[in-house]
Write a structure and sequence with these properties.
mainly alpha; globular
């Protein structure tokens, strides 16, 4: 008969085995394997639904936990703001002093035009959504769920590294479809770095809010770079 610890590890492994590959599979089918097809779009939507709903459903029906976004412990807001400013400053400096020299602004404009982001109103709406709403969803999924389940299986430090790499993979495949490999590698390094900070924040404060505050600053910096290129 399994002990409660063995049961927790088995449940964690199963949940991660379902959830972690989902965003990468969605991107692969929608962009690389079956682009433009109904099949590819269907797989992408199903994977997106899995990513968004499984953590909540798993917490309620398997772990028998209430869904709650824990308040920040003392110092969490300061950590989030300071780390966010640090990450945002690094993004802006890397772009203006390094990346902009080997990335074609014209090609970037062409790509963003294909994505429908060259209209200022669309761009602003996208920036607000990705910076304030999508970042919260990502923090809930990847830090509050994936990191917690990974920590049960492999411990805190390996879990921080695992989540950072897993978080970067589907971003890498999505960006590689549109952008040059140099920019993809640079962006993935930033994603891994940011994810490590946000997982550390969750581990210390047991709340998504410090990481979320930091995440918002990072996304706003990315969209500030995009604004400078496009407009």
């Amino acid at each position: 008969m399994k002990t409660s610890f063995e049961r927790d590890k088995a449940q964690a492994l199963l949940s991660l085995g379902i959830l972690v590959p989902a965003p990468t599979l969605g991107v692969l089918f929608a962009m690389w394997i079956a682009p433009g097809s109904r099949f590819g779009e269907t797989v992408f939507v199903l994977c997106k639904i899995t990513l968004l709903l499984l953590p909540a459903l798993w917490s309620i029906f398997v772990l028998e936990e209430k869904i709650s976004l824990s308040p920040m412990r003392k110092g969490g807001a300061i950590f989030g703001a300071l780390s966010g400013v640090l990450i945002a400053s690094a993004i802006l400096m890397v772009w203006f002093f390094f990346a902009s020299k080997f990335v074609s602004a014209e090609e970037m404009r062409k790509t963003c035009s294909e994505l429908g982001l060259c209209r200022l109103d669309f761009y602003i709406c996208g920036a607000l959504y990705w910076s304030f709403i999508n970042s919260m969803l990502e923090e809930y999924v990847w830090r509050s769920f994936v990191f917690k389940q990974s920590r049960i299986l492999i411990g805190k430090i390996p879990a921080i590294v695992f989540v950072a790499l897993a978080f970067a993979v589907h971003h890498a495949f999505a960006m590689a479809y549109y952008f040059p490999w140099q920019l993809v590698l640079l962006a993935c390094a930033g994603i891994v770095f940011g994810s490590i900070i946000w997982s550390c924040a969750y581990s210390r404060y047991e709340s998504i809010w410090p990481g979320y505050i930091s995440h918002v600053f990072a996304d706003l910096a990315i969209f500030a770079v995009g604004y400078q290129i496009l407009f």
